[in-house]
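User: I'm putting together notes for a lab meeting next week and I want to include a structural view of one of the chains we've been expressing. I don't have a solved structure, so I'd like a prediction I can at least talk through. The sequence is below, exactly as it appears in our construct file.
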Amino acid sequence: MTVRSVIKRAPWRFHGETGEGSPDAIFTIECMTCHEESEPVDNDGRVPQEWAMQHTGRNTDHRLFKLHTETYWRVDPASGNPLCEEDGCPTP
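Assistant: Thanks for the context. Below is the predicted structure for the 92-residue chain, given as structure tokens.
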């Protein structure tokens, strides 16, 4: 078991996850009348929009939707953080 010390003041970097296979965003859209949802889709917000238009075409009184957008973020040690020297700093 490895014991790590607590670092009270050290610089950290909060940024969007851009690693291989990580989507920019995942989109779904939810009908606020019946709560039916589109299938989740990576990186293309047009697909849920098209679903909403088709849903309203089938249910003409269903006109209000909520867009759900999921993104991935991470925290990494920044230059000057002891963990950066220990683990290596990720490139920005």
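A couple of points you could mention at the meeting. The two ends are 31 Å apart (CA to CA). Residues 12-87 form one domain.

User: Perfect, that's what I needed.
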